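G.,

No rush on this.
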Amino acid sequence: MASIKAFLGTCVLLAVFATPALAEDKNWAGEAELGLVSTTGNTDTSSINGKLKLKGDWGRWNGEFKAGYHWAEDSGETSARRFTSSATARYLVSEKGFVFGAIDYEDDGFNGFDYRLSESIGYGHRFDLSEDAFLVLSAGPGFRQNKTDEGEKTEETIIYGNLDFEWKIADNVLFTEDFNLKSGEENTFMESITAVKTAVARNLALKLSYTVRNNSDVPDGRENTDTVTAATIVYGF
């Protein structure tokens, strides 16, 4: 519970103190989202989904930072706890092409790993499919460091791939698909985040998302695939 309070407190502080600064600096933009679910009676469950995203643009350079937290409890027992963060820097080498460097961190209390850290570099390209839709593909080599719950540490070379698709269905409705791949000799990780966001006010939106996470190699007693269906409120700044 302490980690939940710390995460929520951090999000609130960032939103409060970052909003005025980002509003003055036109190079920055961001959004924070939060979803809470609690049921009582025949079932006693609770869950929290929170995310924070910051984007910066300085001509040929642009960057992005993401952080997310998912926690769930069922009948007094924690059933899910995951913290993720990532940072990506890109440099435009042409109107649509770019080179990038990225770092990703994951702490999942239920996948058998104490943490996983990966670094990657590569090339990406944006494809404008229409006035309302675009696709960004990026790929490259990288490295991954793993530490299991038993304390075993491993390192491996990976292939990194990302697909980012956005489609503005209507003036206030946005469909997105974010697919990530990190494939190494010991494990291949895939994540798909499909979402629909509907604006309800100038800075507020409602978001429905479906996340699928798959690991090819997991410890005994663990499932290869996890899914999360979430409804959240998004605040843009």
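When you get to it, here's the other one too:
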Amino acid sequence: MSNNREMKRRCREKKPELYAATQRAWYLKNKERCLAASKKHREDNREKYDVYSKKYREANRDKCSLAVKASRQKLMMEFVNEYGGSCRCCGEEELSFLTIEHSLHDPPRNPSGLRITAYAELRRLKKSGWPKDKGIYVLCYNCNCSTQIIGTMCAHKSASNRHSILMACAP
């Protein structure tokens, strides 16, 4: 066994590109086996991974924060692209203004009855294949708030609704 390890070490030192290509080819051939072994190891050592992850996040707070922000932005871009690319009402395309709208005005809730976050809702939608029949679409923040105040349509749809919005917002 030690002779085989020594041979691998020498190969790795002399021809790193060849060694890496060989290792990659083996991994691709045995990918399912590798993933299953990795998953089992992670499950068997859950506490160890949790401690390591917590230490890593604390030591690399800025890096992790940026990664999470990029991940959420990417998911939001996927959502917007899947559901039309712009606000359904006014056509706004600026990603930072766009939101998820549930036509039933009944936000999704977790099993304990609490509302779930927009990010959790986006993950759920992606996992279920971006369903188009659930009454979910893209609205900008202004149109989304407007439809919640008026009830059925956005202020962009009718000039007469502007007065009702102002009256609803008045103290």
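Residues 45-140 form one domain. The longest helix spans residues 61-82.

Enjoy the weekend,
O.
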